[in-house]
Each structure stands twice: as structure tokens, then as C-alpha cells.
Design goal:
By secondary structure, the protein is α/β, with parallel strands linked by helices. It is 41% helix and 13% strand. A 7-stranded mixed beta sheet has the order 2-8-7-6-5-3-4, sandwiched between helices. Strands 9-10-13-12 form a 4-stranded antiparallel beta sheet, covered by helices on one side. Strands 1-11 form a two-stranded parallel ribbon. Helix 7 runs parallel beside helix 8.
Length: 435
């Protein structure tokens, strides 16, 4: 039998309460609870709608809106919101200097250890940031480059990261070199070869998106990073959409630098992120805000941002417990299931083109994000119609290689909401957009 909501919320809250009471507890002592057991085989769990309805009840989303832009920023579960509110309340009821500078630091270290353990790296390689952009810009600005040095990226990397290198071009006369990749890309060896073919003797740094925000394309990060390392070139990985979305360990990637937002797929408070820096690379990477020289080898130098709220960071522990309760592999499978529900239904119309691969592949080509295009329909107008007429939130994508609408369900998305979205698009396919 499924437990009631109050029992479930209490179970998920327990690990953080324990951690708060004993922040120095051994790593792994507070194991995440199990969510309700599914009826039937584990392989059937992705279709166990009673189970996923129970998961969905942890979110406080307005169900009159269908949110299919979870790739932008996700709502946090109710337990995460409650944890953050507790920490905000404590910081304002106790003397703030005591709360922020005495009580919070050891709890922050517990969160750091928990994140490192979950993703298979050393806690001394994990910095807690405010978002993927901050973590990536620490790397993009912090690596020494000189005039004429080349940075390699694709035309599908995130605009903010491209603009970061463009500023270094204007200010320091480095050179940003970009190249196209296929849409969708289904040959991982071809992708690695494209990076390798665009490397020159002047290439000093490679940027690669783990999951491309435009289409959900998953890139072969480990192979690209290994190829670049053989040539003595470090790799920065933009993992904004990847961590806690599909199942992997940071240690699997063997990359030098990795940054992500935790308010996307981990469901952590808005304004939380993670930066991984290989231990041997910490000393040579400059922080965005100055740190004392005694922190040259300390991952915490990247957290030197002055006075800041700790509630966001400490509530990450609650989000991590929620993620662990579902399980990374189970979460990945559910997101793929939801993606396939709408993709295969719309493809049946004969007028829809997918810019995201649905093929099963050992290297994982995609997960929950997918982008589609309806023949003869302006995607910007389609996105606006879905929102204004049906309160369905999606993202219009306009790129030099393709156009479309990006759709991003989450674990709280229901089959009925997928049906509501598909029905609205099918109406447009049959009758066109209203004048």
C-alpha cells in the first residue's frame, strides 16, 4: 500500500534533520528513504502512475498550467521549500553573524560531502555556486589565455558561455572558434572527430556541453575530454542540463572542469549550482572574486563571494535526499518514457520533425528534453499559441541550423498533461494557427 503524503514527506525530511543535528556525522550515515514501492517488476515502474502521482504531490505547481519548460528552472519539492524557509527563519531570528558564520559553515561542509559522494568525486573538488553560469565563468575567466590563443566550441553551446569568450576576445584578443554539429547527432565517433578536426596548434581550451540546451543532445564528454587531454588541452564541461537528469557519475567523465545548476534537475532551491575542478587543476584556476593566497589549493576559494544567504545551499541536502529516494536510473527512465509519449504521438502525424534522437544507444544520445518542428508552422508563434490559449509552457528555439519548440517534462508531469499538450499541437497540425 502507498503511504499517505504526510508520512512520505516526513520520511524524506528525516535525513536533513539528522544532518543538521550532527553535521559532522560520517559520510553516508544518513541514507535517503525509499519512496513507495511499485506494484510489479522494477522495469514496470516508469508506468506505475500511482507511484508517480505520489511523487508529483510533493510539488506545489499550479496544475491549471502545464509546465513543459522544466529545463529552464524547476520548481522545488515542498520539503525543499520548507527546509529553505527554516534556514531563512533561523538566520533572521538568531544574530545573523552567528547563524551565517558559525552555524552554517559546518552544515555547508556536510552538503559538500553529500554531493561529492553522490557523484563519485572528492569533496575537496566540489565548490557550491549559485548556478552553472557562475561555475562556468570561473573556469572561462580563470584559465590563463593570451592573444591569439584559440578556444574551441560548437555553434550550439549556450549563448552566455559564448558571450563570455567573446568578451575575452574583445578584451584580451583571444580567438573563439566555433563549428557545427549534426542535428540530431547519432554517431558519437563523428562528434569526437569533429572536435579533433577543428583543433589547431593554437587551441588552448575546449568547451563542450554535456547536454545541449537547444535539443537535449547528450555529448560524448569522456571521449572528447580524453582526446583533448592527449593533446595537452583542458576541457570545460557545461553540465547545466545533465546532472541529476540522467544517471551518471562525474568520475565517469574524467574531465578537468564541470559546472551545473542544481535548481534544474536536482530540484534544489533557485540559485544553487555545483562546480567540479580536478584537484590538480585548482591551484592554476583563478577565482572570479579574489581569495587570499593561502587558499590557492583550496576548492573553497571559488566560493569567496562575500555575504550571501546560506539557506539556498543548506536546503540542497533536502533536494538530494528527494533525488536519492527516487533513484537516478529510475528518474532517467521516467523522463525518457514521458518524452517518448509525446514524441511518438506527434511523429505519427507525418508533419513533425524531431531534432532530438529517440534511438536507444549505449552512449545515451538524449533523455527528457526534446525539440520538435511542425512543417509549415512558425515555432515562435506555436509557442506563443500554446501559452496564450492553453497555458502550456514550452520554449521556442531559433538557431542558424534549425528551428523548433523545446519540450521538457519532469517527474511530476502527468500523462494527462502530456495528452493536453499533444491535443493542442494536433489541433494546430490539422487546422493551423488561428489568425
Amino acid at each position: 500500500m502507498l503511504p499517505n503524503r504526510r508520512r512520505m514527506l516526513g520520511a524524506i525530511a528525516l535525513p536533513f534533520v539528522s544532518a543538521a543535528c550532527a553535521p559532522a556525522a560520517p559520510l553516508g550515515a544518513n541514507k535517503p528513504p525509499n519512496l513507495p514501492k511499485t506494484r510489479g517488476a522494477e522495469s514496470d515502474m516508469v508506468r506505475d502512475e500511482d507511484y508517480w502521482a505520489e511523487v508529483g504531490r510533493h510539488f506545489t505547481m499550479d496544475r491549471s498550467i502545464v509546465n513543459l519548460n522544466n529545463g529552464g528552472v524547476s520548481p522545488a519539492p515542498e520539503s525543499v521549500q520548507a527546509a529553505m524557509n527554516r534556514h531563512v527563519g533561523f538566520a533572521n531570528s538568531a544574530p545573523p553573524p552567528y547563524a551565517l558564520w558559525e552555524i552554517a559553515p559546518p552544515l555547508r561542509e556536510a552538503v559538500r560531502r553529500q554531493l561529492a559522494s553522490q557523484w563519485g568525486v572528492d569533496a575537496e573538488e566540489i565548490a557550491i555556486t549559485r548556478n552553472a553560469s557562475e561555475g562556468l565563468q570561473i573556469c572561462q575567466f580563470g584559465i590563463d589565455l593570451g592573444p591569439g590563443n584559440e578556444v574551441l566550441a560548437t555553434t550550439q553551446d549556450y549563448p552566455r558561455m559564448i558571450n563570455t569568450f567573446r568578451q575575452r576576445e574583445r578584451r584580451e584578443k583571444i580567438v573563439l572558434k566555433q563549428f557545427d554539429i549534426p542535428v540530431p547527432a547519432e554517431d558519437t565517433n563523428q562528434l569526437v572527430s569533429l572536435y579533433e578536426a577543428n583543433i589547431t596548434p593554437k587551441t588552448k581550451l575546449v568547451l563542450v556541453s554535456h547536454m545541449i540546451n537547444l535539443t537535449g543532445q547528450i555529448m560524448p564528454v569522456r571521449e572528447i575530454a580524453a582526446m583533448a587531454r592527449r593533446r595537452g588541452i583542458p576541457t570545460i564541461v557545461d553540465g547545466a542540463h545533465a546532472l541529476a537528469h540522467f544517471d551518471f557519475k562525474l568520475s565517469d567523465l574524467d574531465c578537468d572542469y564541470y559546472a551545473t545548476s542544481l535548481h534544474k534537475w536536482l530540484f534544489a532551491p533557485h540559485g544553487t549550482g555545483l562546480l567540479y575542478v580536478r584537484k590538480s587543476k585548482i591551484r592554476s584556476l583563478w577565482p572570479l572574486m579574489a581569495a587570499h593566497s593561502d587558499k590557492d589549493d583550496d576548492i573553497r576559494k571559488f566560493e569567496e563571494i562575500g555575504t550571501h544567504p546560506e539557506a539556498n545551499t543548506l536546503a540542497i541536502a533536502e533536494a538530494l535526499a528527494f533525488h536519492q529516494a527516487i533513484g537516478g536510473a529510475r528518474k532517467e527512465a521516467r523522463l525518457i518514457h514521458l518524452r517518448d509519449l509525446w514524441c511518438k504521438r506527434l511523429l505519427a502525424s507525418g508533419r513533425v520533425r524531431l531534432h532530438t534522437s529517440l534511438k536507444a544507444h549505449p552512449a545515451k544520445l538524449a533523455c527528457g528534453i526534446a525539440t520538435f518542428q511542425v512543417e509549415g508552422i512558425d515555432p515562435v508563434k506555436l509557442q506563443a499559441y500554446l501559452w496564450s490559449e492553453h497555458r502550456i509552457l514550452t520554449v521556442a528555439i531559433v538557431h542558424q541550423q534549425f528551428q523548433g519548440v523545446r519540450v521538457t517534462p519532469s517527474v511530476y508531469t502527468t500523462p494527462d498533461e502530456i495528452d493536453r499538450f499533444c491535443s493542442a499541437v494536433e489541433r494546430v497540425i490539422a487546422k493551423g494557427l488561428p489568425a
